[in-house]
């Protein structure tokens, strides 16, 4: 998954400058991790040394199963939330514009 940002932002306490990035998700039950990585070369293997930011995603259990979806929501100016629905799990991570 790729992320193209026209504004600098922070994620998980790390600052990310304007640019193009790869994004990775590490599922682990109800505690997933989102990673922003500076390597955007198609076909390259994941290299942890290229990580710029990591954040644990907050999760909650849903009553009904949902289709898999990934969306960005803007709940407020200078704030963006990555939201993932997967089965009966809802996860989110906050991106804040610098």
- End-to-end span in angstroms? 23 Å
Shape: globular
Structural class by SSE content? mainly beta
Question: Domains counted in the coordinates: how many?
Answer: 1
Radius of gyration: 14 Å
Number of strands: 8
Helix content: under 10%
The SSE string, one letter per element, is: EEEEEEEE
> What value does the average pLDDT take?
94
Largest sheet: 4 strands, antiparallel
Number of distinct helices = 0
The proportion of residues in beta strands is over 45%
Description:
This protein is an all-beta fold. The chain has one domain (2-97). It contains no helices and eight strands. The protein is globular. The mean pLDDT is 94.
Question: What topology does this entry show?
Answer:
Blueprint: E1 2-5, E2 9-11, E3 14-16, E4 19-26, E5 33-37, E6 51-56, E7 58-76, E8 79-97
Antiparallel strand pairs: 1-4, 2-3, 2-8, 4-5, 5-6, 7-8
Which key features would you list for this structure?
single chain; 98 residues; mainly beta; four-stranded antiparallel beta sheet
Summarize the structure.
This protein has 98 residues and is mainly β. It has no helices and 8 strands. The strands form 2 sheets. It has a 4-stranded antiparallel β-sheet with strand order 1-4-5-6, with no helix packed on it.
């Amino acid at each position: 998954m790729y992320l193209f940002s026209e504004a600098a932002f922070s994620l998980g306490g790390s600052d990310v400058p304007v640019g193009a990035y790869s994004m990775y998700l590490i599922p682990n039950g109800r505690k997933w991790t989102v990673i922003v990585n500076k390597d955007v070369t198609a076909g390259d293997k994941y290299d942890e040394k290229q990580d710029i930011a990591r954040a644990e995603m907050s999760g909650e259990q849903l009553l009904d199963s949902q289709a898999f979806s990934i969306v960005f929501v803007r709940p407020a100016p200078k704030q963006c939330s990555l939201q993932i629905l997967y089965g009966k799990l809802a996860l989110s991570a906050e991106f804040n514009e610098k």
